[in-house]
Amino acid sequence: MQRDPMIGDGIAHRPPSESRPRRATARFMLSHPLHVISLGFGSGLSPLMPGTFGTLFAWLSFAALAGRLTAAEWGALIAVGFVAGVGITGFTAKRLGMDDPSPVVWDEIVAFWLVLLFVTPETFMGQLGAFVIFRFFDMVKPPPIRYFDQHFSGGFGIMIDDLVAAFLTLLVIALWRMTI
Q: Computed over its alpha carbons, how large is the radius of gyration of the chain?
């Protein structure tokens, strides 16, 4: 009978690279181009609230590119960003040894771009309101977001719960606009 290298002496062993989750650092981010994207071009490396910093990066990058891209081009960028994000975020999460690492913020970026695409043109205060609502849904994860967060894994799981948070954000904004 052969010994299973993962079990060996009865104690579960993992290869050294899988023994504990890795920490996302600038060095880790720069070790592969996909990590740069997953970590939001560095915004996900914030030690406090990386998702919030990733969403802020989305807002700033949207503002910087708003005059350069049409609505159709934004739609294409968001669609490609979501589909590619499934593989990109899954790759980085696997390298970090975690299911949904908080430094991986590409999901927040793509989802908040979607929100901004539908609320723009809007005043700064309107965009700030969208930011706050989106961050609330992303952090609290009320149903149905929690369902998607708990039942899907890998890159798709990382991306889909933020997309649902974006749709709920847009729903709240639409309902509010109907009442005023």
A: 18
Secondary structure letter of residue 9 according to DSSP:
T
- Rounded to two decimals, the pTM is 0.88
What's the token pair of residue 62?
A: 């949207």
Question: What range does the domain containing 160 cover?
Answer: 25-179
Give the model confidence (pLDDT) of 135-154 as tens digits: 999 999 999 999 999 999 99
- Which amino acid, one-letter code, is at 34? L
Longest dimension (CA), the chain: 74
Cα 66 to Cα 79: distance, rounded to the nearest angstrom? 17
Q: Is residue 16 part of a domain?
A: no
The residue whose two tokens read 């996900």 is 44
Domain count, the chain: 1
| Domain assignment present for 4 | no
